[in-house]
Amino acid sequence: MGSLSELTIAQASTKLKAKEITSAELTQACIDRIEKVDGTINAVVYKNFDRALEEAKKIDDAGAFDNALSGIPYLTKDVYCEEGVPTTACSNMLREKNYTPPFDSTTTARLKAVGAISIGKVNTDEFTQGASTETSCYGVTKNPWDTEKVAGGSSGGSAAAVAADECLFALGTDTGGSIRQPAAYCGVTGIRPTYGRTSRYGVMSMASSLDVIGPLCKTVEDTALVLEAISGIDSMDATTGDTAVPNYSTALTGDVKGLKIGLPKEYFSDDMNEEVRQSIMDSCEVLKSLGAEIVDVSMPYTQYATPAYYVICPSEVSSNMSRYDGIRYGHTPLRQGSAGQVTTNLVEYYHQARSEGFGDEVKRRIMIGTYALSAGYYDAYYRQALKVRTLIQKDFEDVYKTVDALIAPVTPTAAFSIGAHDGDPVAMYLEDIFLDPQVMAGIPALSVPCGFTKENLPLGLQVMGPQWGEEVVLRIADAYEKSTEWNAQKPSL
Known about the structure:
Blueprint: H1 9-17, H2 23-41, E1 44-47, H3 49-62, E2 73-77, H4 92-95, H5 106-113, E3 117-122, E4 142-143, E5 146-150, H6 156-163, E6 169-174, H7 180-186, E7 189-192, E8 212-217, H8 220-230, E9 260-264, H9 274-289, E10 293-297, H10 305-320, H11 346-357, H12 360-373, H13 378-399, E11 405-409, H14 425-429, H15 436-441, E12 445-452, E13 458-464, H16 470-482
Helix pairs in contact: 2-3, 6-7, 8-16, 10-12, 10-13
């Protein structure tokens, strides 16, 4: 192994406790790696290096590495609020004013409490709205495996940074697959926990009933360590569940004997890439060899998940984006009235602020959502989408009566070329086709590396569990990972 930044959390924690390395050395290694390769991939949009090194030295001086995350450097998606750290959601709406939150999100506060060290912010689609990190005001993040391909989105910066060893883990958000898809594209592990398992407080909202926050890591073991630290009920977020947080690491037994795992036929569409299909079939054989039973199942409402998602999500976007008005905070219009003077018309001011501050994708979703919620269309679109959501939830409830978990592809293809979907938003939305059903049902789902294409692009296996079933998801993914070597491969940068 070369740089310390290549270590996993588990490996680094062992070395820190044994005093073989210091947190300052580990943090500096990640900083050096960022300075070396980020000019190529464009993952990091804000560098918090001086403060990170100060924190690392304090942790070294205390010498108490009593948590696996103590002294571990990580990167944060640029929608998490951190006290004193600029947070822009990669949008010109906030970037111009250099918005700096006066408080910490619950997640970053919990990580700070156990001694993890935030070293900067990473790129995302504007306000997390996109599937490729191409809508960011900072430009696109490139895939470390092939810089002509996207890293995925909206947590593309998080996935690329982990794959490129710029940090030991990163935080992401998953509304319609935005942790799992970039994890698959970049060859790392990412989990969307059960809705309500982790707190959304202090994380800029896109769609409040769909947003979930979670980590992207180098291994399943690391994923379990981070998830345990950030999970649990939060008085600041009424949507968090009053459900005990298990010790996820103890679930990683490597034993899946006797587990019944479903393979939904609806996740194998005719237009799926053959290499993706084969990688999932090969993964089934691996799990069978470990003693799991693979059974075919059907989930008929899967086909309606993406249409329902793209009614519910924009509707909630329309509501959440209304706070960005250019008055309380945000972009100040460049044009001051039709005659070059300050406008006294509030509606005109809002129009100018949002026209100049928001990008095309955010505007598109605001308009779609506002239309779907408007008088005369609410019942025809939004209410119908909610009914479909209930049917999808029942699909999962029914299937989990017969199986312990499900597996499927993460995406129908590997990472696509930058600009491939320019001018075709519907094609971009269809990238989420295997990722939206879990969102509708609020269940946990994880992406773990399961192969490569002939062009050496990573592929991901999606493991899904019942509500609050992160343990079985991690158990299956860990057993699979330990029986393969896909996650051990690194991109050349």
